[in-house]
Every structure is written in C-alpha cells, then in structure tokens.
Write a structure and sequence with these properties.
The protein is of the alpha+beta class and 286 residues long. It folds into 2 domains: 152 residues, no CATH class; 102 residues, no CATH class. Helix 1 packs parallel to helix 3 and helix 2 runs antiparallel to helix 3. It is rod-shaped, with a radius of gyration of 51 Å.
C-alpha cells in the first residue's frame, strides 16, 4: 500500500509530460502539413506561370513574325505608290494599323507576364532576361512604326502633289487635244470683217490693186468654233459668185456648191488638208 502511494504521483507526472509532448508533436505536424500545402500551391503557381510564359512567348513571337512580314509588304507598297499605284495606299495604311495593334497586344501580354513573374516569386534570370529582351524589341518596333507613320504621311503628301501635277498635266493634254480638233470660221462682208480687224487691205497704188488678207491678230470671239472631224459643210447665205475665201485654204480640198439663189454650201472634201489653216475667213457680197 505504501508502495502504491509512492508510484502513483510518478505515473501521473509521466502521463502529463507525454500529453504535452503529444500536443506539441501534433502542432508541429500541423505546421509541417501547412508548409507542405503552401509549397504545393507555390509549385502549382509556378507550373501555371511556366505554361503562361510559354503561351505568351509563342504569341509574342508570332506577332513579331507578322510584324516582319508586314514591314516587307509596306516597303514594297511604298515603292509602288511612288510609281503611281494609288490603290496600294489603303493596304499600306491597313498594315501599319495591324503592326501597331500587334505591338500594343504584345507589350500588354509581356507586362502582364512580368507582373505574374513577380507574384510567383520565382528566381529565374533566364525568364526575366527573355521578357526584358522581347520588351526592348517591341519598343524598337514601336519607334519604327512611329517613323513609318511619319514617312507614310510624307509619302502621302508627295503622292498628293504628284497626283495634282498629273491632273494638271491631264488637263493641259485635254486642252491641247481639244485645240487640235478645233477650228474657227467667220462669215461677213469685207467692211464687217475689216471693222472687226479680221481682214485688212494690203498693197496697191492710189487705191488700185489692193489685196484683202487675213489680219495677223485675230480675235477668237468673232469666230464660230467647230470640230474638224465632224464639220463636213458650211452653209453660206450668199450666191456663189459673191463668195471669197480669204484664208489660205487649199482650193483642192473644198467645193462651193450653189443650192439656192442666195445660198451656197462649202463642202469640205479633204478635212486634213483643208484644216491645215485653222481659221476660215469667208467674205460675202453683203
């Protein structure tokens, strides 16, 4: 009995110590479990980041490849636009806009990737250097597209000036072509034509032997214009015997044909020869 009374406190003390150790051990196990779960989550985050990293790099590299292709097209467009191929201007502007969009999208993706890189607390210089390298490439492309926009604006102005010059040239050619097929004629008495300074008298002595000739300074407003390729005949309100062709037209290239008592037709047989002299001056008896 005395022995039991001595052993019992010892057993109670040992049991109490074991319980404390057990409790401490459970706490350490729980802590290790939490640490293990945190490590697993970090590993999952890192694995997810690696996947995002690979996907983003592939997209950025694809964008860079598309940018390079369009850069080549734009250079070709620029050469052809300068040669006058105006239809390529819209394609060029479209490709510049596409490059701009590729650059913005790629920079946004890399910025997001860099933010994720910091959040997963990875210590990888290779990852970081790759992101920085691609970001620098995109910044260079951004500078390039800015210069390209300036060049395109200058090229557009150059093309616009060239187009205006071409339009002016076309207008001149059109006017010249119009002049090439336009002739003028006037019909009147010698007095009427003298008053309008269309004809003048030359030569002669004491009023005899004078010749009526076409003046050197003619005023177009007194003439009727006509197209040499459509004008085949002119009606003259005068008898044939009272008509005089003063201008130097080939007499073999036309005929004066009486049609009525006081009407005559000037029929042009050879327009090319007849209209070598573009101003036809006809004097009638009045």
């Amino acid at each position: 009995m005395k022995y039991l009374l001595t052993v019992l406190p010892v057993l109670i003390l040992l049991t109490s110590c074991n319980q404390e150790k057990l409790t401490q051990l459970e706490k350490e196990v729980q802590k290790l479990r939490q640490q293990n779960e945190m490590i697993q989550r970090q590993e999952q985050e890192k694995n997810k980041f690696v996947e995002e990293y690979a996907t983003t790099l592939n997209e950025v590299y694809d964008n860079l490849e598309n940018i390079r292709k369009r850069e080549g097209l734009i250079s070709e467009y620029s050469r052809n636009i300068e040669k006058g191929k105006k239809s390529l201007k819209d394609k060029m502007n479209s490709d510049i806009s596409a490059i701009d969009a590729y650059i913005r999208a790629s920079k946004n993706k890399l910025a997001a990737l860099q933010k994720r890189f910091k959040s997963v607390e990875m210590d990888s210089k290779a990852f970081e250097k790759t992101i920085e390298k691609l970001t620098r490439q995109l910044e260079e492309k951004e500078k390039f597209i800015s210069r390209l926009k300036d060049q395109n604006m200058a090229l557009s102005k150059k093309v616009e000036i060239a187009q205006k010059a071409m339009q002016q040239k076309d207008l001149i050619i059109e006017e010249q072509s119009e002049q090439l097929v336009t002739a003028y004629y006037v019909i009147g008495t010698d007095k009427e034509l003298e008053e309008k300074h269309i004809v003048e008298e030359k030569g002669g002595i004491l009023g005899f032997g004078k010749t009526i000739v076409v003046s050197s300074n003619l005023e177009n407003s007194y003439f009727t214009s006509t197209k040499i390729d459509t004008m085949a005949r002119i009606t003259i309100d005068s008898p044939t015997e009272d008509i005089e062709i003063v201008s130097a037209h080939d007499p073999e290239s036309f005929d004066l044909v009486p049609v009525e008592k006081d009407k005559t037709l000037l029929e042009i047989k050879d327009p090319r020869s007849f209209w070598k002299m573009r101003y036809l001056v006809i004097i009638t008896g009045g």
